[in-house]
Design brief:
The protein is of the alpha+beta class. Helix content is 19%, strand content 37%. The structure holds zinc ion. The site of zinc ion has 8 residues, from loops.
Length: 275
Amino acid sequence: MRFVPGDRYHPRYQHVYILARGANIFSPLANLAEPLPENQLDLPKTLLEKAHYIGDWHRNSTTFHCMVVQAGDFEAPIEGEWLLLRSLLGKIDESHFQMLGRALQITRWAREHQFCGVCGELTEARAGERAMSCQSCESIFYPRISPCVICLVTRGKDLLLARHNRKAADFFSTLAGFIEPGENAEQAVIREIREEVAIEIENLRYIRSQAWPFPGQLMLGYLAEYKSGDLQPDGEEILEAAWFSPNNLPQVPPPSTISGQLIAHHLSSIGKSIK
Ligand SMILES: [Zn+2]
């Protein structure tokens, strides 16, 4: 299975539908959180008209146009349940997760931009691009993502991992934060690490990125090396931070997250793997 995000809709393939309700996705009992063909859903015309195209879904050598519908109180005529997207992390493959994350972000954006943020009038979808525009003052609203940086700091073989106040208490992760207006990504990494644990870093290296739909981040993943300073968690975002030997790691994020991937990247570079 493979999902390729797309914006420009030219009818070519059969449609499959994702049903969204807030942060939940409809999951048919038979196939965990998979999109469903039109003929199984019997969607009313009012919902079909508001479906958003989000990309193409390649499955068993067939390609489908993948659509998402904000389902409201519509109930699918087949057996299934509404699942929080977060509960599917690590249970479905990365491409499938990316598809559902994109679906929720698009429906959320459409729901939050029914009215103009400048003058309060109704908006309407713009032809030819994914945007809502105000019928009165002509302001245009595009879907918005929030760029974040996430960084694994190393000191020799050791890894800097921290317990965040918003995560499970026994969970140690890499450091992360939002990029501020006017800042570049590298400046954001240096600032966040200075603010959160009071150390300086060097040899910053970009590794990869991950869309993180909670609710709309793009995580830019870096490795960096320790330069100077003593670890001092800020006590607000970071409750505890420490250097861990690769042989004695605490519970770390799963490999479905970019944090887990940065940790695995470092470990493999020194000939280790996560147990
Ligand atoms: Zn307006």
